[in-house]
Amino acid sequence: MNVSLASDASLEDIASLTEGFTGADLAAILTDAGKARPSTPADEKRRYDREFGEFVSSRKSISTKARESKGKKVTLA
After folding, report:
1. Residue 14's pLDDT band (cuts 50, 70, 90)
2. Which residues in 43-52 are b (16+ Cβ under 10 Å) and which e?
């Protein structure tokens, strides 16, 4: 899959948000992101923005917890 990277995109931010993702995970994200085209209705764009915000928040929370628990045994429920 070849995609163009926006001039204001940060590979460092992308890497930190997608730590542990597989190529298939990233391809799915890019496919979903492609759905938010300029012809997409405003309410649909707002939904995508909200979902992305939730995604970013959850990834930051998980990353923080993972760093804090380094070396500790963790059991996921």
Report:
1. confident
2. eeeeeeeeee
The count of other CB atoms within 10 Å of the CB of residue 14 is: 13
* Token pair in block for residue 52: 């992305």
Identity of the amino acid at 45? K
Q: How distant is the alpha carbon of residue 14 from its chain centre?
A: 7
Q: 3-state secondary structure string, 8-30?
A: CCCHHHHHHHCCCCCHHHHHHHH
User: What residue ranges do the domains of the chain occupy?
Assistant: 11-67
Q: Report the predicted TM-score, pTM, of the whole model to 2 decimal places.
A: 0.43
Taking the chain, what is the end-to-end CA distance rounded to the nearest angstrom?
35
CA distances from 57 to 3, 13, 51, 74 (A): 25, 13, 10, 21
Q: How far is CA 3 from CA 53, 57, 69, in A?
A: 22, 25, 35
